[in-house]
Structures are given as C-alpha cells and as structure tokens.
C-alpha cells in the first residue's frame, strides 16, 4: 500500500490531530482502553424471560445488549411482538445500552428512536445507501467486516458513514471465509493491530460468529485482548430458553461470567 492511510481514508485514517477516537455512549467509552462487553441475544421465548435474562447479563458484567436479527426465514425469530418499546424498557430497567442491527434504509428512522447503537451486519458492509443513511443519525454505528472483504474495503465502507456526517463508527471483525472445516469462519486477529495502525476508529471482535462453536469463544477473546481490541461481542443463551437458535456458538451465563472475568483481568491491556 503505497499511499498513506490518511490519503486512502481521509476520515477513517489516523492524522496528527486524531490518533485514537473514543466513542462515549452513556457511561462507557469504546476505545478508552477498557474493553467493552457486549452480550448478543438471537432469540428469547417470552417477555418475562427476556427481562430476566437481561438483568442476569447486567449483573454478570455486560454493558451493551444486542438483539440478534435472524438471516434465515426458517430459523427462530423469537417473540413476534418483541417491540422496540420493549428494548427501551429493558434499557430503563437494567441500565444496559441497546444495540440493534438495521438491514434496510426504511428501518433506520424507527429503530434509531429507541436504541443507543446501530449495527451494519457483514452482509450489508457494502450496502452504500444504508451506510449513508446511518451516517445521517447521531448514533454510534458498529460496522461488521464483510466475510470476503479486505481491510481496505472495510475502511472504505466506514468512509461512507463518516462522510455522511456520523463520526462514531466502531469496526467489528467477525471472521472471514476460509477453507478449513473446524470453524464457521476465520477470525482475523491480524486485522486488529492493522486497524490500530491505520485508523483512529475503535475495533472490536465477535468470536461467536467467527468460530461458530462455543468452546473457542474465550480463547479467541483472549487473543483479541492480547492484540488490543476495544471490545468483545459474544452470543449468550440461557438453559430455560428452548429456542437455542445459535446455541452451538453461544455461551451459557456461567461461561459468560468467566469471559467477563477474563476481560476484567485485561482492562489495562490497551492503556
């Protein structure tokens, strides 16, 4: 790469004036040197269980709750009436910040009214109309790397959001396609220090999506912490939840508590 990062990515690239962005949301600062803990739900059976699970995650150390939208029309969709108002109620009751994926420009306005963070999934990383739309809102955006995207393409996608006016972009590495058969995707740990060299934007990882198996989540999270991530997003399920839409790549509450303990022991890894 012959051109300096600032020329390739005029808004996402580092500059003399902007070495590292810290995105303040509520009481947390993503990029501040203390890795943020994001718990991810894919489905839940009832309102009562949803609230109970959210309280348990908060007590276990979660700071952000992300509700998972399903990609398959045949997989469990959770509560049909799981409204945005309910997510807002969970935030009010628990103090958890709420993140939700947006998949269409027509969703953004209604969702943005209720959540703290918008997410662009990997399949929409180069959906430029959607990137520009979320760039029009004053909400942080988690931008997941496409499964076949280069780091250059990923940063250029972030430019669309930044150019539209939204400066609060969080990059999320969730794995790229590979040829081996032991994990769902390949978590590109090298992307973390590369992003930290090229860009001022915070970078987090999603080892659940990358591994596709729960036994690798904590080891991959440890690797990410050693590489300097600004946060870890993991899927969690509860034994009382019979939907188990992605159980194979989800932690139990006890395992999630173990992960939070690992992250707590590495709170100063970025400082």
From TrEMBL:
<dbReference type="InterPro" id="IPR006268">
    <property type="entry name" value="DAHP_syn_2"/>
</dbReference>
<keyword id="KW-0808">Transferase</keyword>
<feature type="domain" description="DAHP synthetase I/KDSA">
    <location>
        <begin position="27"/>
        <end position="261"/>
    </location>
</feature>
<dbReference type="InterPro" id="IPR013785">
    <property type="entry name" value="Aldolase_TIM"/>
</dbReference>
<dbReference type="InterPro" id="IPR052899">
    <property type="entry name" value="Class-I_DAHP_synthase"/>
</dbReference>
<dbReference type="GO" id="GO:0016832">
    <property type="term" value="F:aldehyde-lyase activity"/>
</dbReference>
<dbReference type="GO" id="GO:0003849">
    <property type="term" value="F:3-deoxy-7-phosphoheptulonate synthase activity"/>
</dbReference>
<dbReference type="GO" id="GO:0009073">
    <property type="term" value="P:aromatic amino acid family biosynthetic process"/>
</dbReference>
<dbReference type="Pfam" id="PF00793">
    <property type="entry name" value="DAHP_synth_1"/>
</dbReference>
<protein>
    <submittedName>
        <fullName>3-deoxy-D-arabinoheptulosonate-7-phosphate synthase</fullName>
        <ecNumber>2.5.1.54</ecNumber>
    </submittedName>
</protein>
<dbReference type="InterPro" id="IPR006218">
    <property type="entry name" value="DAHP1/KDSA"/>
</dbReference>
